Predict the structure.
Amino acid sequence: MSHSRISIVDTMDAIFAASNTPALVIHAAGRVLGSGWTSPDLGRHVYMVPPSDGIQGLDFLAAAPDSGIHVPVVTPIHVDLLLAPIDIENYWGPGAPLLGVRVHAVENAKTAMFAAGKGMPGVRAVENSSAALSFANDIQPLFRQRDVSAMRIVAGFDLHYYADVQAHAEAIYSRLLDGSMPCDGAWPQADIARFRAWIDSGMTA
């Protein structure tokens, strides 16, 4: 399955969450010309030497439809990317910080800067976001009833029960990260980052 740049990127948002496992979550939304595009992704540019502007480039990619029937209409598409752990201050090497991220489509690009300037939106730094996370308010609602029922049958524990999730948190995170849980489709990267931040902050009930 080959991937190509999508037509237009409309919005992008980057959130930096500082915790024991610092994470950068990038969300982008755009449009493709036609139905049937699948598997959206953000492909990182690879640099032989760090870019002079300190910005990490990303290609907004998706798999074009095959030769079957598809409708020639403008179709929205979105994607999330989790970069964790990430060392913002030494991203390009010792003392060379990451200054921003830029998402490229065929017709345009969108940029977010850690120090916003030139009219560009800034990366949202959530320095202590993990401190306010709790199982009851932030984690339990992420697990659907179908997930709870399936895990009771397969693994014998309850995803809506704090003690069970606390005891199996690292195993659950590993499954979320590799996309094998839930079985009907991976979580958004922002939710995976939230689960990781909850673990790192001490797993408050």
Q: What stands out?
A: DSSP finds five helices and nine strands in the chain. Helices lie at 135-139, 145-154, 162-167, 169-178, 189-200. The beta strands are 3-5, 8-17, 23-33, 38-44, 55-63, 74-83, 100-104, 109-113, 124-126. Residues 127-131 have pLDDT under 50 and may be disordered.
